[in-house]
Design goal:
Elements lengths: L5 H12 L1 H20 L4 H19 L5 H7 L4 H27 L1 H11 L3 H13 L3 H17 L3 H22 L5 H4 L3 H25 L18 H30 L8 H16 L11 H5 L17 H24 L3 H10 L3 H6 L1 H6 L4 H16 L7 H17 L7 H51 L3 H14 L1
Length: about 500
């Protein structure tokens, strides 16, 4: 369906790009949930505490991971890379202060205990886990910044190896060391959190060493005009903030869902049980489609309209048509995986029981939410494909309204669906789907707006060019002009 070598380029690039998401969600998060569920304390309480802390951390500081796209689009020199790293250092310090504030202040008590309607034990564990995660966003952002630079230079294999090393380090530390230590009795929450840190450290180290070994001595000290000019911090932040806003709304979606679901008194399950179901089902439901979000990086890396690709991709055979076909095949593959996993009888229950380690009665409560996840690939693919195209044009500002619409649709669904008899985790996942559809619709509208402006500008340029050609045609020839001048001189 794709011509070689374009198919091979896109295939290997995307394969290694999605390994972090696929392996992290399908292997490690399930292992974490299984380990948390196996501790001697109340398994449901531990799942709820860790799920709340992790989702809040991803909302407050997760947008820094989108600096990968800054590295992919803007970093063309050593000076550009220094500016990107400086932004991440400042953002990491702010994140650490914010985590500490949430853990120790009354604001954290209000956000976690009061808003989410959890008991004192779950709230205390959640705030403590949130404090332990204070340094993780900085390490994650540093890793993704260098991953974007490596992906620009087509070192997707190295990025994939770093992701594999991340998962292996986490699983080895988690299974072989921490589960057999005294932490299970003293502080069980440190088991998944220390594993996260170990994996992030290995991934960040691998990517930084890969950058210095393969790229640092190759790229120039400064970017020339042929590369689109030198990137300033202002340009980076202007490009990044709409993507960060979108990611922030994606991250806040889960805390909002947890909030409404935990306070939904019309459901048959308790608040803690409902949040625990969401915590258990989200990584499983996210697995078949989560990697589709990384398709947006294919456009900036391969599209010929991106001037920064001149540094590393002068002979690219990938066209926009190839990218569109590749995106469609990825969506079809994801849809197939979703329906096989979640609609085949007893398959989803077996995944939850055998991999995560919950009991069968709890797994049955997760079946309907998982089936709703089957429809996520369509809006996610549309959003990722069009976002990648807009990133190539550096017109990410038009994406900002989509994040606002997503939150509006999400909250509206969480308010309306309970009146239709939808409660618990089903309410949460259904509202997430509605938010995705609303966001993708707005991204499509923004892309149509940019496309029409581009088409109008192109037509105006063609008209102006034709006018110049016509004017040049109407001018007298050089010989005729010379004769006219000589006749005037003779008459004088």
């Amino acid at each position: 369906f794709l011509q070689k070598p374009a198919a091979e380029d896109c295939f290997w690039y995307t394969t290694f790009l999605v390994l972090h998401y696929l392996l992290f969600i399908s292997v490690f998060q399930q292992a974490l949930n299984r380990g948390i569920a196996a501790v001697k304390e109340d398994a449901v309480e531990m799942l709820a505490s860790y799920g709340l802390a992790y989702s809040l951390m991803k909302f407050f500081t997760g947008p820094m991971s989108d600096f990968k796209n800054v590295g992919l689009v803007f970093v063309n020199s050593k000076r550009d890379r220094t500016k990107a790293v400086l932004c991440m250092v400042v953002a990491g310090a702010v994140a650490a202060v914010f985590h500490t504030l949430i853990a120790y202040s009354d604001l954290g008590y209000y956000i976690i205990n009061k808003l989410h309607h959890v008991d004192e034990s779950v709230g205390s564990k959640t705030r403590r886990a949130f404090l332990y995660l204070a340094a993780f966003p900085f390490m994650d952002a540093m890793a993704w910044t260098h991953a974007g630079i490596l992906l620009k230079h087509k070192y997707s294999f190295l990025v994939g190896c770093a992701s594999i090393s991340d998962v292996i380090a986490q699983v080895v530390v988690f299974v072989a060391i921490l589960l057999h230590s005294h932490l299970e009795c003293r502080e069980p929450l440190l088991i998944p959190i220390l594993s996260l840190y170990m994996g992030a450290l290995v991934r960040c180290t691998t990517l930084c060493l890969g950058y210095y070994r393969n790229i640092h001595d190759v790229i120039p000290d400064r970017s020339g005009p042929e590369m689109g000019g030198e990137a300033t911090i202002r340009k980076m932040l202007s490009f990044w903030w709409p993507l960060a806003l979108i990611l922030a709304t994606q991250r806040i979606s889960r805390p909002i869902v947890n909030l409404f679901v935990s306070r939904d008194l019309g459901g048959s399950s308790t608040a803690t049980e409902a949040v625990a179901i969401l915590t258990a089902t989200y990584p499983v439901g996210h697995m078949p489609y989560g990697w589709l979000t990384e398709i947006r990086a294919v456009y900036p890396a391969f599209d010929k309209n991106n001037p920064s690709n001149k540094l590393v991709n002068t002979n690219s055979t990938v066209t926009a048509t190839h990218i569109k076909k590749f995106t469609f095949v990825c969506m079809a593959l994801s849809l197939t995986l979703c329906f096989v996993m979640f609609w085949t009888p007893n398959v989803s229950e077996k995944i939850l029981v055998d991999i995560i380690g919950v009991d069968f009665a709890f797994a049955e409560l997760c079946v309907v939410p998982l089936r709703i996840f089957s429809f996520f690939p369509v809006p996610v693919t549309v959003r990722a494909h069009l976002t990648g195209w807009l990133m190539t044009l550096k017109k990410t500002f038009v994406l900002a309204p989509s994040s606002v619409l997503r939150i509006i649709v999400l909250i509206a669904s969480l308010i309306v669906l309970p009146y239709l008899g939808v409660h618990g985790a089903t309410l949460g996942v259904g509202s997430l789907l509605a938010g995705f559809v609303g966001e993708s619709t707005m991204v499509a509208i923004a892309a149509c707006y940019v496309y029409r402006k581009q088409k109008k500008k192109r037509n105006e340029n063609e008209t102006a060019t034709e006018g110049e050609d016509s004017a040049m045609t109407d001018m007298p020839h050089t010989e005729e002009m010379t004769d006219i001048v000589e006749m005037r001189e003779e008459n004088e």
